[in-house]
Amino acid sequence: MFGLYTGISQFYLKRVLGIKPRGFVVEGRNRKFLITEISIVIICFFYLIFVHVYFNYTNLFNSSPIFILLALMLIIQGIEEKKKDKEAKKYYHEWLTASFVIICILVLLTGSIL
Question: Whole-prediction pTM value?
Answer without folding.
Answer: 0.70
